[in-house]
Amino acid sequence: LQVTCPSNLLAGKRILVTAGPTIEAIDPVRGITNFSSGKMGYAIAQAAIEMGADVTLISGPTALTAPRHCTTIQVTSAQQMHDAVMAEVRGQDVFIAVAAVADYRPREVQSQKIKKHADTLQLELVRNPDILAAVSNLPDRPFCVGFAAESDQLLEHARKKRLQKNVPLLAANLVSEAMGGDDSRIVLIDDHGEHPLPSGSKTLLAHMLLQHMAGMLPPSTT
Ligand code: CTP
Ligand code: CA
């Protein structure tokens, strides 16, 4: 399938994207993380650049090369990602939250490596800030796009998530169809309902998602 889209569909738009996992340190050599290759987020950043946008990518640790012609900020933890997003969000037209942010972090980070002793070890976890919710609650918020990766009951969870997060557009996928690979399958959910995209490469899906999104953006005033 050929991707044909006007290359200027997002010209002049400032777009902030989060991608990849976060890692929450336990001690100097260990952490808690989510499984995420970062491929979908990087594909979206790349596609947005190709469509003329001015893109800032805030990425957790991945094995990917940062796209060219884009400002990339590397972070490790959810708190760092949150702080980087909050520092960059002013003046952005669009925020696309693709990152698989760890929902919890260890309450305490041990400064020394934890040595193994007992047969069991308990970690106490505390909630991380919800970056997408924080952005979508800003008084002068950009157009917000969320992702939902679910293991089951995709549409049910995703519909609920879009309303809870108060975002106009949410891209839902099943972890079994998306994680790690170059291909994925996505259902877009907006006020008009559900729009399943054909399964394909993350590059193709990124273009289709951005094309759909471009039609939802308020007309430029500049
Ligand atoms: N998200 C975020 N910050 C977090 C958690 C999630 O910005 N601390 C964003 C993700 O990037 C994604 C959306 O919120 O765009 C949904 O993430 P998801 O993990 O599916 O939803 P949660 O609200 O965390 O709910 P749960 O994990 O319980 O399903
Ligand atoms: Ca989560």
Automatic annotation (TrEMBL):
Full-length numbering of the shown residues: 185 to 406 of 413
Family to which the UniProt record says this protein belongs: In the C-terminal section; belongs to the PPC synthetase family. In the N-terminal section; belongs to the HFCD (homo-oligomeric flavin containing Cys decarboxylase) superfamily.
GO biological process: coenzyme A biosynthetic process; pantothenate catabolic process
Any single Gene Ontology cellular-component annotation: phosphopantothenoylcysteine decarboxylase complex
Keyword Magnesium recorded: yes
Name of the coding gene: coaBC
Reactions it catalyzes: N-[(R)-4-phosphopantothenoyl]-L-cysteine + H(+) = (R)-4'-phosphopantetheine + CO2; (R)-4'-phosphopantothenate + L-cysteine + CTP = N-[(R)-4-phosphopantothenoyl]-L-cysteine + CMP + diphosphate + H(+)
Cofactor note (record): Binds 1 FMN per subunit.
GO molecular-function terms, A-Z: FMN binding; metal ion binding; phosphopantothenate--cysteine ligase activity; phosphopantothenoylcysteine decarboxylase activity
Entry binding sites for CTP: D103, K113, P129, D130, I131, L132, F147, K161, K165
EC id: 4.1.1.36, 6.3.2.5
Superkingdom, natural source: Bacteria
Biological role stated in the UniProt entry: Catalyzes two sequential steps in the biosynthesis of coenzyme A. In the first step cysteine is conjugated to 4'-phosphopantothenate to form 4-phosphopantothenoylcysteine. In the second step the latter compound is decarboxylated to form 4'-phosphopantotheine.
Cofactor(s) needed: Mg(2+); FMN
Record domain DNA/pantothenate metabolism flavoprotein C-terminal: where: 10-214
Ranges where the record places region Phosphopantothenate--cysteine ligase: 15-222
Keywords noted in UniProt: Decarboxylase, Flavoprotein, FMN, Ligase, Lyase, Magnesium, Metal-binding, Multifunctional enzyme
Protein's UniProt name: Coenzyme A biosynthesis bifunctional protein CoaBC
